[in-house]
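Long-time lurker, finally posting.

We've been working with tRNA pseudouridine synthase B (Jonesia denitrificans) and I want a structural starting point before designing mutants. I don't trust myself to interpret raw outputs, so I'm hoping someone here can both generate the structure tokens and explain anything notable. Sequence follows.
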Amino acid sequence: MNDPREQLQFGHKGSRGKDAQPRQPRRPTAADGIIVVDKPTGMTSHDVVAIMRRLAGTRKVGHAGTLDPMATGLLVVGVGRGTRLLHFLTAADKSYTATVRLGVATVSEDADGDVTDTQPCDHVTREQLQAAAARLTGVIDQVPSAVSAVKIDGRRAYDRVRAGEDVVLPARSVTVSRFDIVDVVDGPPHHGVATKDVLLSVDVSSGTYVRALGRDLAQIVGTVGHLVALRRTRVAEWTLAEARSVPQLQDTDPTVPLDVMDLGSAAERALRVWRVSEAQAGRLAHGQRLTTELSGQYAAVSEAGELVAVVQCGQGVARPVTVFVSGVQGASS
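Top reply, 14 upvotes:
Generated this for you. Predicted structure of tRNA pseudouridine synthase B:
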């Protein structure tokens, strides 16, 4: 048996060597629900999902809204049927804290990109920044960062930039409901160019690029800038106060299913709630419509607190958009 591949195959199928580490047993499968994770810097959102699949004992895991590797903070993770709720969470408002470095621009408008320009920023005052933030508050037309996941003719914008294309994306309407300048301090010089670090805090609608807010803030005050730190602090009604770090989750008892927030409680954090009777829950479980005077999107929650369906209400009826239970009387699947 001189072929190394055969030796590898034998080693895989046969007995393990004395120095081999014992194979970790598969963790018990977690219940359907939501887990709020505090993502560390340097880790992709997909990295977090991969870890959570192992910890939750299932491959049915996803997240509601990507955080860039350099960013930290709140990542809402769905487990089991919780993944079907994530679609409704991506549209939720979010809060961030960030640091914008004035005086230096990068191709990606954050610290991961190559420097493209430097400009003086000594003239910039806190009062000017506050006035600029006010101009960027409310419903605004924002041009997304060129290095972004926005698709152009079926291809991601960041792929086109990496291929050398000059990408300018069309503006889109977003809402910035709060834009606070928290502090302004001297930043580290860049090859002799003085910089300033602007600490800010914002509440924004889904689809808002905080990198682009930093870019536009710098432009309004007559210089350039890029994001050097970003932390997501809120999604819908979830905050960092209830988030668990990756090490904390990894340190949980591997013989016990991972603790999750049940779907009924999670839905109450993200959507308006409509309490439905047992009979109504049964009809929704079978995809049937209900009569109602409500308007808009609601989480239909049973008397027992179980998420039955997300429904779209209007013109006197409630139509199930996504059903989370099955069977007669809304029994759990």
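Before you design anything, note these points.
DSSP finds nine helices and 19 strands in the chain.
Residues 96-230 form a domain with the Pseudouridine synthase fold (CATH 3.30.2350.10).
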